[in-house]
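Hi all, a correction to my earlier message: I attached the wrong file for Phosphohexomutase. Here's the right sequence:
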Amino acid sequence: MKLYPLQFQPILKDRIWGGTKLKTYLNKPITSEITGESWEISTVENDVSVIANGLYEGKSLNELINEFPEAVLGTKVFKQFGKQFPLLFKYLDAREDLSIQVHPNDELAKKRHNSFGKTEMWYVMQADKDARLIVGFKEKSSPDEYLESLENKTIIDILDTKKVKKGDVFFLETGTVHAIGAGTVIAEIQQTSDITYRIYDFDRVDASGNSRELHVDLALDAINYNVVNAQKKYSKEKNKANEVINCQFFTTNFIPLDGNLNVSKNKESFTVYMCVEGSFDLKFKGETFHYKTGETILILAEMTQFEIEGTASLLEICIS
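and the right structure:
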């Protein structure tokens, strides 16, 4: 197998709440005024990423995994997930508030949708003044209070709102009621799943006057009604992989790159880098590859030794 860092054609999604920052801020080739999401690496059904560079350009990620499962995914990941790519990587631009929503856990998602659940994390890349996120309840709640607050349109009053700035990280376990607020650009890392239960959508309608579907009843037993501590603190030591999140689904490190870093891997897992600020070079076996803000690359598990160099903020993700 030819080894090199893979990039993919972005899968762009128009959303009622989307805007134009994915183009102006991250240089994505958007053509509408309401692009909300760029799916960077995905194997969600009907939204499978296509390789954009090198020898395998034009092949889908699934095709490459089928051909070289362990070399792409890693020995440990292949053993755990077979030929399934277990994570989904996105950038989001929220010009308006997203709907208030919740994601089911693995057990519920498997039973209802034959899908993974959707544990995810957010890294705030950019935030307008006074931008906020909604994460969980202010105080311990209950199914009855949840239903009553929806009936009275007061659900915002019982949810916890966090003012955010660039660099803030939130870890959203399944069951956490949440919403991304207007004026934010987010890097999102999650399990491979597109299962979302929409609870409240601020009575919005689309261009045709239609409301989006709500899933109030499905959400009822998916919600964690306890108070959660979703915001995560982490260190930012230069030229080092600083651990941010380490859960059963993924590990995310933050690398403030200012110079160079030699990286060694063990073939157990693929690695993904999301460049959330700046630019950097990756050097592998005599070749140099250049990346900038808003680009996402997949390092194949067989690529065990390489060097990164530049001035950049990187999210480094693997399964450990």
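Sorry for the mix-up. The helical segments are 21-24, 61-67, 69-73, 75-81, 106-113, 143-151, 155-158, 216-220.
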